[in-house]
Structure formats: structure tokens, C-alpha cells
């Protein structure tokens, strides 16, 4: 297959899905991993896609939700480092915390098992199961489960959140734009995230550097009302964010 034809195929596939893995592109184009990685480097230089750890991301202005197995695999090392830092610095004995259905927040669970008296409230199916498997007292919200992100949403879940107060909420975001707005592709998930933020003594947004400067469809808050925890940013990424944001950078 000619390089130009392969690039066109890759661009169309990535734009349709928002995020994808190198292995998927190898299968799609019947190419080796080294060929695909060279393609992605060239396509990023040409401004066609954005490379992320383990794959590629669309550069379209409005991102959309992608399948859960892809989201868990992208930027995994950064997500684990961010989650570990959040637990070690912001979760305490006897806390009641909300962990939402993000893939970075999910990684917190493995570090929570030895914290006494902890209660985890979540709208994430995977997070609830992992928490139970680690022997942590767990409350899973009721409501409608989204097929793509396995997040529980809807009025029932909203009412339950509004009846609780949290020591802290740990929230995922698909983008933090130049005005500090926190965004996610889905309106119903945005409503849950907004409620988590309001009901918490302190809200923490856990996101990797690839989300800085990005914007999705639904706004659920502003980073100025939270502490943003992410992996180390470049100078350009720091300049994208408003000056007054509380930012904690994690060294992987």
C-alpha cells in the first residue's frame, strides 16, 4: 500500500473513533508496527493526528467517547502515576470519597486498600468491582449504564449524589480548554460530574497532559474550582491554562 493511501486510511479511522491503538492500525493497513509508528510521526508533523502513548488521537475540535478497552490502554503509565499521587496525597483514613467513571480515576483503587475506614462511592462499573475486590466499602450509584464508558448516569444517580457529602471527589475530564472549562463528550455524564464537584469538600481533576487545551461537547465546571493533578506539562501546555489554576504535576 502506498504511503499516501495508508495515511488517508489511518486518518479516517482515527477521526471516526477519536482514539485508537497502534495494533489496530497495523491490522487495518496490514503494516508492521514500525511502519505505523513512522506514519504517525509524519502525520503528527503534518498536523493530521496527535500521537499519544500507544496510539493516536484525532485533532478534531470536539472529541467523542471511545470504547472502554481503548481508553484504558492509552497513556496507561501516566494514569497510574497520577492516580498513585492522588491517593498518597489526598485520601485519608475514614474519608468518604467519590471516584467517577474515568480511566485515570479507576487506577486509584489499587492504592486504596490499606487506608482504614474508607468508603468509595462511584458511578463506574469497573471502579466498583475493583474496589470490592480490594475489600473496600463500596457504594455503586443506581441508574442507567452507558454501553461505551460503563458509567451510571440519569436522575436516580443524580438524586443519590445530592443526598451525600464527600470528603473529596476525584473526577476525570476529556479536556481542559484555554478558559479552564472542564469538558466531557456526554451531557448526562457531565451532569454527574457537576454534582460530584458540588458535593465535595474538595474536588480533584485527574487528567494526563494530552487533555490540556482540548475541548469536548459538554461543560461540567471550571478548573479554577478544583485542584488539577496531571503528569508533567511542557511550557507550551502550561501557557494554555489560566494562571490561577491550582496545578499539581506528577513525575512518572
TrEMBL record:
Residues 3-58 form the HTH deoR-type domain. Keywords: DNA-binding, Transcription, Transcription regulation. Pfam families: DeoRC, HTH_DeoR. GO terms for molecular function: DNA binding; DNA-binding transcription factor activity. InterPro entries: Carb_Metab_HTH_regulators, DeoR-like_C, DeoR_HTH, NagB/RpiA_transferase-like, Tscrpt_reg_HTH_DeoR_CS, WH-like_DNA-bd_sf, WH_DNA-bd_sf. The keyword DNA-binding applies. This is DeoR family transcriptional regulator. The lineage of its organism: Bacteria, Bacillati, Bacillota, Bacilli, Lactobacillales. It comes from the Bacteria.
Amino acid at each position: 500500500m502506498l504511503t499516501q493511501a495508508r495515511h488517508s486510511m489511518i486518518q479516517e479511522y482515527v477521526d471516526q473513533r477519536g482514539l485508537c491503538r497502534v495494533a489496530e492500525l497495523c491490522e487495518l493497513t496490514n503494516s508492521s508496527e514500525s511502519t505505523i509508528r513512522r506514519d504517525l510521526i509524519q502525520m503528527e508533523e503534518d498536523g493530521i493526528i496527535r500521537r499519544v502513548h500507544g496510539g493516536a488521537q484525532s485533532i478534531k475540535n470536539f472529541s467523542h467517547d471511545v470504547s472502554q478497552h481503548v481508553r484504558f490502554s492509552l497513556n496507561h503509565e501516566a494514569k497510574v502515576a497520577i492516580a498513585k499521587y492522588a491517593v498518597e496525597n489526598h485520601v485519608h483514613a475514614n474519608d468518604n470519597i467519590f471516584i467517577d467513571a474515568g480511566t485515570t480515576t479507576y487506577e486509584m483503587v489499587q492504592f486504596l486498600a490499606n487506608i482504614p475506614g474508607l468508603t468509595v462511592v462511584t458511578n463506574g462499573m469497573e471502579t466498583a468491582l475493583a474496589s470490592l475486590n480490594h475489600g473496600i466499602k463500596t457504594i455503586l450509584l443506581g441508574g442507567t449504564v452507558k454501553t461505551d464508558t460503563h458509567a451510571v448516569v440519569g436522575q436516580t444517580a443524580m438524586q443519590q449524589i445530592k443526598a451525600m457529602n464527600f470528603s473529596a471527589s476525584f473526577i476525570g475530564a476529556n479536556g481542559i480548554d484555554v478558559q479552564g472549562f472542564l469538558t466531557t463528550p456526554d451531557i448526562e455524564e457531565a451532569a454527574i460530574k457537576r454534582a460530584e464537584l458540588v458535593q465535595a469538600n474538595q474536588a480533584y481533576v485527574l487528567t494526563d497532559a494530552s487533555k490540556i487545551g482540548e475541548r469536548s461537547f459538554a461543560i461540567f465546571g471550571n478548573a479554577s474550582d478544583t485542584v488539577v493533578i496531571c503528569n508533567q506539562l511542557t511550557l507550551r501546555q502550561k501557557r494554555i491554562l489560566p494562571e490561577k489554576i491550582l496545578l499539581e504535576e506528577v513525575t512518572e
